[in-house]
Design a protein that fits this description.
heterodimer, A: Aldehyde Oxidoreductase, domain 3, B: two-stranded antiparallel sheet, Molybdopterin synthase catalytic subunit (chain A), EC 2.8.1.12 (chain A)
Amino acid sequence: MNIDIKILPEPLNIPACINWVMSPECGGINVFIGTVRNVTKQKKVIRLEFEAYESMAISEMNKIAVSSFTKWPVQKILIHHRTGVLEVGEVPVVIVVAAAHRDIAFTACRYIIDTLKQIVPIWKKEVFEDGEVWVAAHP
Amino acid sequence: MKILAFGIVKDIFSNAVIDVDCKNDSSVDDLKHMLEKKYPGLNELGSYMIAVNNEYASAGDIINENDEIAVIPPVSGG
């Protein structure tokens, strides 16, 4: 299967990610780029800090990619996630899906980011001017 | 038995790794009860999971000394 999964401490190379999935069989490439937003619940965000349980996160992302291949006729899937300190505007996640037709590429890409956010063991801490909080930790 | 902590659980444990006395053949549920007694902050989380050898574990799964055990608070990647 054509799967490329990485957790990286340095900035993600978006053009290289897109190039990796390009292939003559694919008529549709869907790219999801997650970026660091400057505000959460009306509070100004200074930066985010991402931490991963790397071995398990890689394994869970691989499972999501494999299950996408079983659900849809996709050709290539790339999932790259950052760790460390990210400033506003930086990119924590890039997902690129290539398929013969656009419908499948859109559907699979959405499934991958939605599932990643639910199960992959990666955490972000939001740092504000007056404090910090681990996102989603408390009900 | 070593337990890995991530995210807010590192703050609750004040450590990235803790060592607990957990006898062989304990279940994941036994471990959770023990940890919650020692670290009441775990009860304030929305939820949390235990991972055994890089897989989410169920309440009745049995853990052993050589397993890699981690406490997984609600994830927030992406």
